[in-house]
Write a structure and sequence with these properties.
heterodimer, A: alpha+beta, seven-stranded mixed β-sheet, globular, B: mainly alpha, transport (chain B), iron (chain B), Fe3_Rdtase_TM_dom (chain B)
Chain lengths: 283, 198
């Protein structure tokens, strides 16, 4: 082999993972994914701290900057942490992941996220053996979030995962979308992304992460226990009491629907987490 | 002039919808947005229809309102028209779902559907011939319009989380008017009873 060819080959080999981490990820977890239009994903948002109207969130969030702040990580851990949300990428290495996103309201999107694997953060905090769950609590500022005035919800927004879910390779902390920092309406400065669960699990604007021994309470489970379970795994067989979950509509589509897939199509990666669990009862 | 104003008022929700669809945009879930817009249009006209006779009674002898009250058929038919589009678009949205028929059994869906059926029945019998033919039953039938209120309160409440506030927003004014009229009546009868006693 000539020296020139060798250098060329080396260059290619080096360039391959460097050039397109997004493509590498896509090849691994579903290359058929075409991201939804950015305008759709950033204009149609469930963020009840601002408004219950999905179209009203962006106008209300205009000019409101959330973060940066220090993310608090505590509870049953060896090493409680305070991490600057701006330094997460630097600490854990930034990745780009294109995930399917499925809202419990039967609409869906494909979103290119940017951020860090949740697993890495959990490992840094070193949970104690008694830590079985992870609780996430969102930011709450009535001065800039008019929706908080609604007494209907037990604010602040909180969510939870089992620790094996939180340390799954797919669980992600996003700080950006479409190659830009997260806009306020999408959960700035940092949000959870759990692509095999309904979107409400992917809590926005996270302030603290706490490791607990028992299953934490979550906002939606408190508000409607019959409709929003702790697991909330995407499942076409288990209907929401008020609508069917068998199909979903991609944002931007008028009438066309596509079949919803078990675990939002990530069954190959996550189904083993739920072996022996009755998914109908543990919705 | 009276009729012109009324027609303008009844067309206002349609004008708003067309303006939003063409100038503002229907957003990421366009059909859902249209369904909501026509739903609110139907509600707007329905609440107007139900409030009108009470307001007219409260504003005794107002010729303008009396004239509008006599034109309730037009108002009711407008509500039916908006409601029909609302339902039609919902049907279009859901038709492709394999659970179309099963979905009809959900309280969120059937409360809205039954309200529409009531309005359809009232619309079909709103002509003079039916009125004469049905005699006393016509009044009975047309009182069914009030059944739409609890049905639609349930429909709105189940729409999304915390939507009881939405139901109150739509039907609050009607409830307030109804209570005002009741209170005034009660006071009047009491005063009359007192004056009779003296």
């Amino acid at each position: 082999m000539s020296r020139r060819a060798l250098v060329k080959g080396l260059g290619l080999a080096l360039a391959w993972p460097g050039l397109s981490p997004m493509q590498a990820w896509a090849a691994k977890f579903g290359s058929e994914l075409t991201p939804s239009k950015e305008e759709l994903v950033t204009s149609y948002n469930n963020f009840y701290e601002f408004s219950t109207d999905k179209g009203e969130v962006r106008p209300l969030a205009q000019g409101v900057q959330l973060g940066p702040w220090e993310l608090e990580i505590g509870g049953l851990v060896e090493k409680p942490l305070r991490l600057d949300t701006q330094k997460l990428a630097q600490l854990f290495g930034e990745e780009e992941r294109i995930y399917r996103f499925r809202c419990v309201e039967a609409w869906a999107a494909v979103v290119p996220w940017r951020g860090v694997g949740l697993k890495k953060l959990v490992e840094m905090a070193r949970p104690l053996s008694g830590a079985k769950y992870v609780r996430f609590v969102a930011h709450m500022d009535p001065k800039v979030m008019p929706g908080l005035a609604s007494g209907h919800f037990p604010w602040p927004y909180s969510e939870g995962l089992r620790i094996d879910e939180a340390t799954h390779e797919l669980a992600f902390l996003a700080t950006g979308i479409y190659g830009k920092p997260l806009p306020t309406q999408n959960g700035a400065p940092v949000r959870l992304v759990v692509p095999w669960k309904y979107g409400f699990k992917s809590i926005k604007s996270i302030r603290s992460i706490e490791f607990t021994a028992t299953q934490p309470r979550t906002l939606w489970n408190d508000v409607g226990p019959a409709e929003y379970g702790f697991y909330a795994n995407v499942n076409p067989e288990v209907d929401h009491p008020r609508w069917s979950q068998a199909t979903e509509k991609l944002l931007g589509s008028w009438v066309q629907r596509q079949p919803t897939r078990l675990f939002n199509g990530y069954g190959e990666q996550v189904a083993s987490l739920y072996q022996g669990l009755d998914l109908k009862r543990n919705y | 002039m009276n009729l012109g104003l009324l027609v303008l008022l009844l067309l206002a929700p349609l004008v708003r919808t067309v303006w939003i669809a063409t100038q503002v945009g229907l957003g990421a879930n366009p059909l859902e947005r249209l369904i909501h817009l026509f739903g609110s249009a139907a509600l707007f006209v329905l609440v107007f229809l139900l409030c009108l006779p009470i307001v007219t009674r409260l504003a005794k002898g107002n010729k303008f309102l009396q004239d509008w009250t006599r034109r309730r058929r037009l108002i009711g038919l407008s509500a039916l028209a908006y409601g029909t589009v609302h339902l039609g678009l919902y049907g279009l949205d859901q038709w492709w779902s394999p659970k179309f028929w099963a979905n009809l059994g959900r309280p969120f869906v059937w409360t809205g559907f039954v309200s529409w059926v009531i309005f359809l029945a009232l619309g079909l019998t709103s002509n003079q011939i039916s009125r004469v033919r049905l005699k006393k039953n016509w009044q009975r039938l047309h009182r069914l319009v009030w059944l739409c209120v609890p049905l639609l309160v349930v429909h709105l409440t189940l729409k999304e989380e915390g939507a009881l506030a939405l139901a109150l927003w739509w039907f609050g004014p009607l409830a307030a008017l109804w209570l005002t009229e009741r209170t005034l009546k009660l006071r009047r009868t009491r005063r009359e009873a007192e004056s009779l006693g003296h």
